[in-house]
């Protein structure tokens, strides 16, 4: 069990180092796209369910801007 507990820490440390070494405009996102910007994602999804996609351009664009700020190319 100790190996299993140590393994995630080693993997996490390795991924943190690779993220820390990336600099500039080409830095990789720190999160998965599904987990980034939960607030704007929730607002966007609720609007689309209630009013349809065409009525929610404001929330869709707000979510895209948030994702871009997190480092995603959308």
From TrEMBL:
It is found in: Mitochondrion intermembrane space. GO terms for cellular component: mitochondrial intermembrane space. GO terms for molecular function: copper chaperone activity; copper ion binding. Residues 1-30 are annotated as: Disordered. Gene3D superfamilies: CytochromE C oxidase copper chaperone (1.10.287.1130). Its main location: mitochondrion. Pfam families: COX17. The keyword Disulfide bond applies. SUPFAM superfamilies: Cysteine alpha-hairpin motif. Cu cation binds at residues 34-35. The keyword Mitochondrion applies. Keywords: Chaperone, Copper, Disulfide bond, Metal-binding, Mitochondrion. Residues 1-24 have a biased composition (Polar residues). It comes from the Eukaryota. Belongs to the COX17 family. This is Cytochrome c oxidase copper chaperone. It comes from Acacia crassicarpa.
């Amino acid at each position: 069990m100790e190996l299993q507990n140590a393994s995630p820490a080693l993997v996490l440390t390795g991924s943190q180092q690779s993220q820390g070494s990336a600099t500039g405009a080409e830095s990789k996102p720190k999160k998965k796209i599904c987990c980034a910007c939960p607030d704007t994602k929730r607002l966007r999804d609720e609007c689309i369910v209630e009013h349809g996609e065409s009525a929610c351009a404001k929330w869709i664009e707000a979510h895209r801007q948030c994702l871009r700020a997190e480092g995603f190319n959308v």
